[in-house]
């Protein structure tokens, strides 16, 4: 917290912390994985760069630069001795002057980590999850900037997630204000039809995911045809394969949308991408070795 290692039980904030009341915080989700060389963080610099860019969009004056954030992350991993972990950097308006204007409150930065398995469950990664198209619409860029990973954005995601779970589904799919597919509450989405893989473009109101970017690289390396294009709710139902991507979710197939089975349930292309991803994050692929940051 603010440049110092703090015991878990002492990592506290004041009840009048500005961000708690107004959602003025930006954050990241990063993973550390076991490798033969020890713990390795997947695409650390890309995540921290997006973290800094989110702060810039929200006019936050970040007190730490990229090298400092990178070093703090590695120190945290070394101090906790957790080889497989989820890492959460957050920058937020702290305890200061109450009221909407965040500029009167100091920007504070913390990085936490904990053990966290597959977000949508190990069975979901293997067999696929059941999804529903949410009645909640993905926020519009004219309301909140979706390219910033801001805490306020995730109230929209929480509503969609709760609606899906209360209806007996594993996860939601949000449409944008134009009625086109955007993303999941905390994941990007890919569609496969006749061997062509597509994902909504940034203009659809998505967050440009780091795992999404990794999968796009995998598709090129696999020699598969890939497109960034909008698609409709009906096109979800007629997909040969669908899958979510995200730091928390990894690459997770979608086996059903609103009671409609997707494809055959074999997920042949998704499985190929999962294999590449697992090799990359665990240091088994020299091709993607540059994406891993090891502790000293």
Overview of the structural elements:
It is a single chain. With 296 residues, the protein is an alpha+beta fold. It has two domains: 8-114, Aminotransferase class 4, branched-chain amino acid transferase, N-terminal domain (D-amino Acid Aminotransferase, Chain A, domain 1, 2-Layer Sandwich); 122-281, D-amino Acid Aminotransferase, subunit A, domain 2 (D-amino Acid Aminotransferase, Chain A, domain 2, Alpha-Beta Barrel). Helix content is 29%, strand content 25%. The strands form two sheets. Strands 6, 7, 8, 9, 10, 11, 12, 13 and 14 form a nine-stranded mixed beta sheet that branches. Strands 1, 2, 3, 4, 5 and 15 form a six-stranded antiparallel beta sheet that branches. The longest helix is centred in the first third of the chain and has 15 residues, at 66-80. The chain is globular, with a radius of gyration of 19 Å. The chain starts with 17 loop residues before the first helix and ends with a strand.
Features:
9-stranded mixed β-sheet, alpha+beta, D-amino Acid Aminotransferase, Chain A, domain 1, 2 domains, 8 helices, 6-stranded antiparallel β-sheet, D-amino Acid Aminotransferase, Chain A, domain 2, 29% helix, 296 residues
Query: Major β-sheet, in short?
Result: 9 strands, mixed
Write the CATH architecture name of the largest domain.
Alpha-Beta Barrel
Query: What is the H/E string?
Result: HEEEHHEEHEHEEEEHEHEEEHE
CATH topology of the largest domain: D-amino Acid Aminotransferase, Chain A, domain 2
Span between termini: 21 Å
Work out the strand percent. 15-25%
Q: Taking all residues together, what is the mean pLDDT?
A: 96
- Morphology call: globular
Structural class: alpha+beta
The level 1 CATH classification of the largest domain is Alpha Beta
Q: How many β-strand stretches?
A: 15
**Which regions are unreliable across 5 or more consecutive residues at pLDDT < 50?**
none
> Number of helical segments?
8
What Rg do the Cα atoms give? 19 Å
Helical proportion, percent range:
25-40%
Q: How many domain regions?
A: 2
Q: What is the H level of CATH, i.e. the homologous superfamily of the largest domain?
A: D-amino Acid Aminotransferase, subunit A, domain 2
């Amino acid at each position: 917290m603010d440049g110092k290692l703090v015991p878990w039980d002492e990592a506290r904030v004041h009840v009048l912390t500005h961000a708690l009341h107004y959602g003025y915080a930006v954050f990241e989700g990063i993973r550390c994985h076991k490798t033969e060389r020890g713990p390795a963080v997947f695409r650390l610099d890309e995540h921290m760069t997006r973290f800094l860019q989110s702060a810039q969009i929200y006019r936050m004056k970040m007190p730490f630069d990229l090298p400092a954030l990178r070093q703090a992350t590695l120190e945290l991993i070394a101090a906790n001795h957790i080889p497989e972990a989820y890492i959460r950097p957050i920058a937020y308006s702290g305890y200061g002057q109450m009221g909407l204007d965040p500029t009167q409150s100091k920007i504070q930065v913390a990085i936490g980590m904990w053990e966290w398995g597959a977000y949508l469950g190990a069975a979901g990664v293997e067999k696929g999850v059941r999804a529903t198209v949410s009645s909640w619409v993905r926020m519009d860029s004219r309301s909140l900037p979706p390219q910033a990973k801001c805490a306020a954005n995730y109230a929209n995601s929480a509503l969609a997630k709760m609606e899906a779970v209360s209806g007996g589904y594993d996860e939601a799919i949000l449409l944008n204000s134009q009625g086109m597919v955007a993303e999941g509450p905390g994941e990007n989405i890919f569609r496969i039809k006749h061997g062509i893989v597509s994902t909504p473009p940034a203009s659809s109101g998505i967050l440009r995911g780091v795992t999404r970017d990794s999968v796009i690289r995998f598709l090129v390396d696999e020699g598969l045809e890939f497109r960034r294009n909008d698609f409709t709710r009906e096109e979800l139902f007629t997909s040969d394969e669908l899958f979510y991507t995200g730091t928390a979710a990894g690459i997770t197939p979608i086996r059903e949308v609103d009671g409609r089975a997707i494809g055959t349930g074999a997920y042949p292309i998704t499985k190929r991408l999962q294999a590449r991803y697992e090799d990359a994050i665990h240091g088994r692929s020299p091709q993607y070795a540059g994406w891993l940051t090891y502790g000293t």
